[in-house]
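User: quick one, sequence for these tokens?
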């Protein structure tokens, strides 16, 4: 009886060993649980314009029963940003309906965070209506127009009834979880002269650190002084007013200090001074 038990125990151990070996082989060969996806370890660099084909670069899949199933691999999802990279999750399928997944980190060669535009100067007369939600827009290189996602916060004391300088913050987050924030100042002033309107083609520009300082006067689109309107054509150095007078761009005064070597948000004031009218507008310069 003892010998029989020993033989039975030996058979059990042998069977268990064979089962374990077969299970390991199946796992390694992809026969148990689906295909085996091979993904390079290095971070993949792609353009924001690239499609799924670029994301699948050098990704393959083998199945123990079906063989090469690379054609079944697809991009299941892309994570939000973390540490400047995103994680792509791949999925592969075999003929039995088994699904396996693998991940890889990617980075973009041409990504820029969401950017803001302003349709009005952040400079207002006392008593003038302010609607910051209406004057700010935002675009993103991944999502396109993200204006609807912009959030605006201001000093609780902001009021056009009182002249002063108030803090304002614009922020927006894209689908990849990247948040762009613009912190600046809004100016409310009491006019003590006949006010002229200085209108710009844009009230917010982005520059790269180290670039030459732009010609801020080139952004002036028109000046309205009472009944006289000066409209500048693109690239023109002067404009003829509705009364026949001429206004040269160089006559517009520029005030503000921008450090083109240091990232930050800077304010540039452009002023028109005539005999009977004068006016100032505010251009924001973001150095990245």
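Assistant:
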């Amino acid at each position: 009886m003892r010998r029989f038990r020993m033989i039975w125990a030996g058979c059990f151990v042998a069977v268990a060993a064979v089962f374990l070996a077969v299970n390991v082989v199946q796992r390694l060969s992809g026969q148990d649980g689906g295909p085996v996806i091979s993904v390079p370890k290095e971070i993949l660099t792609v353009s924001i314009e690239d499609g799924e084909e670029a994301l699948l670069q050098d990704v393959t899949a083998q199945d123990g029963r079906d063989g090469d199933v690379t054609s079944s691999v697809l991009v299941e999802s892309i994570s939000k940003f973390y540490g400047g990279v995103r994680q792509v999750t791949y999925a592969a399928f075999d003929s039995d309906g088994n699904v396996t997944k693998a991940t890889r980190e990617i980075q973009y060669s041409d990504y820029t965070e969401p950017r803001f535009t302003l349709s009005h100067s952040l400079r207002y007369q006392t008593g003038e209506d302010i609607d910051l939600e209406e004057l700010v827009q935002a675009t993103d290189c991944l999502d396109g127009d993200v204006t609807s996602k912009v959030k605006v916060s201001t000093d609780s004391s902001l009021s056009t009834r009182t002249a002063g300088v108030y803090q304002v913050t614009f922020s927006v987050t894209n689908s990849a979880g990247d948040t762009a924030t613009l912190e600046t100042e809004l100016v409310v002033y009491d006019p003590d002269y006949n006010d002229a309107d200085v209108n710009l083609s844009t009230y917010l520009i982005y520059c790269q650190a180290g670039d030459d300082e732009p010609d801020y006067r080139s952004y002036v689109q028109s000046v309205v002084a009472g009944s006289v309107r000066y409209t500048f054509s693109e690239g023109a150095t002067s404009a003829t007013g509705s009364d026949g007078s001429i206004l040269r761009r160089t006559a517009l005064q520029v005030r503000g200090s921008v450090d083109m070597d240091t990232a930050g948000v800077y304010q540039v004031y452009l002023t028109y001074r005539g005999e009977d009218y004068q006016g100032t507008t505010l251009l924001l310069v973001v150095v990245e």
